[in-house]
Each structure stands twice: as C-alpha cells, then as structure tokens.
C-alpha cells in the first residue's frame, strides 16, 4: 500500500499523516451526528472489544477458584503472573515479530523512519532499547500488574466490593464498560501530568521517556513508581458497584492496551487493501515532544482544555514552541541576577 497517499515522508525517513489528529467526534464543532454514529463502532472495535473478550476469558476460564482467591497465596500469584506474562508476550510479541523483526511492511506508515534496534544508546540497559523495555515490562510492570490484580480478586472474593450480577444489573454494567475508556483517559491524564512535574519526571517517568522512538516493548517499560499507579486504575471498580469482568476490562485496557500509543505505525497493513488503525499518533507525538498530549487520543479532550493538545500540524508546533519559550522566560526571570562586581 502506498503510504504517501495518506501522508508525507521527510528526508530523514520520518512519515507523518496528512490528516491532523482530532478529538472524538462528540467534542468536534460543528457537531455532526453522522460522524458520531460512524465513530461508535471504531470506539468499540477492535481494540476495546479485544480487551473485553480477554476480560471475559480470564474471569470465566483462567483465574483460580473464588474460594482460593479469598486468601492471598503465592501459588495463585504465580499462576496469575504467568497468565499475564504469557498473554503480554504473545500479544505484544506478535506485533514486534511481524512489524519490527520481520518488518512485514518496511517503514510504510512508520512515524520514525528508524527501528529501535538500529540505535544503541547508553540510556538503556545493555545499550538496547528492546532488551531494556522487555526486561522492565516483564520483571517490573507485570509483577505489579499482578499485585493489583490479586488484591482486586481478594477484595471481590471477600465481598469487600459491591459485585453486581450481569443478570439483574446488565444495563448499569454495560454503562460502566462503555464509560471505562473515557475514565481511563481522565485517570491516565491526571497521573501522567503529575509524573511530568520536575521531581517525579526526573526520578520516575524519565525511564518511560528514554524510548523516544517507541515500539511494542516500550508500552509497559516503566519505573515501578509509574507502573504501579498506572495499573491500579482497576481498583476504581472496588469503589463503585461493579463486577469482576468490568474491573478486568479496565485492567486489560491499561495493560494490553498500552500498546496503542507505542506501535510506531499509523496503520498496520493486514492485507493488500485492508489496514488497522493503531491510534498511536497522539502518544507518538508525546514521546517526540514530551510536553504535549498527556492524555490519550481525545475520547475526553483534556489536552485541548489545558492547552497541551498537539495534532501534528505546523500550527500546533508553533503553539507548542511559543509555550516552551514562555516557560523558559518565566524560569529565567526567577533566577537570581548576579551582583555586579564593585
Ligand atoms: Zn508512552
Ligand atoms: Zn510522559
């Protein structure tokens, strides 16, 4: 497929889409009902439908019995860790294998013309982004993900959280599922904005930002101080009347769903003329420019509200640069001026 029909490539080989990133049609003006209706299937399919499917599979087929989950046990923890690690390995690994190892579509639709393996750097463990990101994901974030998960199951198993059955409360539980991606965006924006404050950025979030050219393994490559609160979003379900499937939907959308921002490609070519939209551009721009797009891709446009939205256009670039200049001037004016020598 010719990616130059959809975007442009600069002389360094970096590709950018012609179309600017836009928030969800419910926030676009003038309001168009046609656009909103056309967007609904895209909101659900295929990514959120996949997270819901894995949530159902985990709860109905894979987790240990509820009796055994009522006490915290190391055997259950290891089983749950194994499931998460295997699931993540297969899911992220498939994208890594097809698009980064075999490079099935070369660099067509790839924002950054280079592949991480071509850029060894001292900021990474073993100088390799791939090894560093892989080890951090599987030996830091996935163990913390599993802590969040086993505590959540323990709370449900002991009836410390309100567990509504689907048979009687399916309307409310459907609303919870439909709102969960929007809640995720608000939660992620707040946490992400917080860890961009200078102290937390330096000591915690900079680990994730080492990957300026993110790839699938970058998705959960985080400092534990980020990985734990990031995954703990699922605990919000313990505070409202909900259900383990809804809680797992949030958990898996955070865990498996982190890949969306880190695929590195705008579109994945499935066949000669079918593609899958990655929804990666907005977060790719965050990895490129750091102080823009703290949220997701605009289901709830908090970045627009706070003036940090970058849609990939030249105008957004200028706006961002003006904001950086203003910030620098403010910082400079705070610096004490040297006393002239007498
Ligand atoms: Zn990221
Ligand atoms: Zn960040």
Automatic annotation (TrEMBL):
<feature type="transmembrane region" description="Helical">
    <location>
        <begin position="134"/>
        <end position="157"/>
    </location>
</feature>
<keyword id="KW-0472">Membrane</keyword>
<protein>
    <submittedName>
        <fullName>Sterol desaturase/sphingolipid hydroxylase, fatty acid hydroxylase superfamily</fullName>
    </submittedName>
</protein>
<feature type="transmembrane region" description="Helical">
    <location>
        <begin position="44"/>
        <end position="66"/>
    </location>
</feature>
<dbReference type="Pfam" id="PF04116">
    <property type="entry name" value="FA_hydroxylase"/>
</dbReference>
<keyword id="KW-0812">Transmembrane</keyword>
<dbReference type="GO" id="GO:0016491">
    <property type="term" value="F:oxidoreductase activity"/>
</dbReference>
<dbReference type="GO" id="GO:0016020">
    <property type="term" value="C:membrane"/>
</dbReference>
<dbReference type="GO" id="GO:0005506">
    <property type="term" value="F:iron ion binding"/>
</dbReference>
<feature type="domain" description="Fatty acid hydroxylase">
    <location>
        <begin position="178"/>
        <end position="308"/>
    </location>
</feature>
<dbReference type="GO" id="GO:0008610">
    <property type="term" value="P:lipid biosynthetic process"/>
</dbReference>
<dbReference type="InterPro" id="IPR006694">
    <property type="entry name" value="Fatty_acid_hydroxylase"/>
</dbReference>
<dbReference type="InterPro" id="IPR050307">
    <property type="entry name" value="Sterol_Desaturase_Related"/>
</dbReference>
<feature type="transmembrane region" description="Helical">
    <location>
        <begin position="78"/>
        <end position="101"/>
    </location>
</feature>
<feature type="region of interest" description="Disordered">
    <location>
        <begin position="313"/>
        <end position="342"/>
    </location>
</feature>
<feature type="transmembrane region" description="Helical">
    <location>
        <begin position="169"/>
        <end position="190"/>
    </location>
</feature>
<keyword id="KW-1133">Transmembrane helix</keyword>
